[in-house]
């Protein structure tokens, strides 16, 4: 039974990341005609379309996708807490704060992996000469460039070598450590997943 719950846990976590990716695709105006973008749209439409009827967008932001990602994170943690026997009414206020911290932790994880993907793809695409030749690489650049630009002003690229991701990774890691610290302070012995 625990194995099945663990599989469900990781599937929910993965889908929450895909829903967050959909939000950032819209926020950063990623080309929705990109084949990889279309795949993400098709994966998230069945759950987002009904939710959008209840939760409208706000100033061009897809609030429904943020709410869905938060709900999925809450369900994911509820499964874990149930598995560990921590989900009780007395723990509910503390767990509510942990749910919010976990949401931001998942968001940072998504950017971390998008940047790793961008770095790997950039080395592969050096031979091709352009990100536009590959739809996956193009989507990664569109998703990460708005986040990378301020750091590239601090450490400009040196020829073809861009060292600014080091600052981004450091910032992400420090923020995640801070979230872990707050989570362990609120609920000793419990970390974010």
UniProtKB/TrEMBL annotation:
InterPro entries, sorted: CCB3/YggT
Source superkingdom: Bacteria
Transmembrane segments: 6-25, 61-84, 96-116
Assigned keywords, A-Z: Membrane, Transmembrane, Transmembrane helix
Keyword 4Fe-4S tagged: no
CC annotations in GO: membrane
Recorded family membership: Belongs to the YggT family.
Protein's name according to its UniProt entry: YggT family protein
Species this protein is from: Pleionea litopenaei
């Amino acid at each position: 039974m625990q194995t099945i719950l663990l599989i469900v846990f990781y599937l929910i976590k993965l889908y929450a990341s895909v829903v967050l990716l959909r939000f950032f695709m819209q926020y950063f105006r990623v080309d929705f005609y990109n084949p990889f973008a279309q795949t993400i749209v098709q994966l998230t439409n069945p759950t987002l379309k009904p939710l959008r009827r209840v939760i409208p967008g706000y100033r061009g932001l897809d609030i429904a996708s943020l709410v869905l990602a938060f709900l999925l994170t809450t369900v994911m943690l509820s499964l874990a807490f149930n598995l560990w026997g921590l989900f009780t009414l007395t723990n509910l206020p503390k767990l509510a704060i942990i749910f919010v911290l976990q949401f931001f932790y998942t968001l940072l994880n998504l950017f971390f992996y998008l940047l790793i993907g961008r770095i790997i793809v950039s080395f592969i695409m050096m031979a091709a000469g352009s990100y536009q030749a590959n739809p996956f690489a193009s989507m990664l650049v569109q998703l990460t460039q708005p986040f990378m630009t301020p750091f590239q002003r601090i450490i400009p690229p040196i020829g073809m070598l861009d060292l600014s991701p080091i600052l981004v990774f450091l910032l992400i890691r420090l923020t995640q450590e801070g979230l872990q610290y707050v989570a362990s302070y609120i609920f000793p012995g419990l970390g974010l997943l």
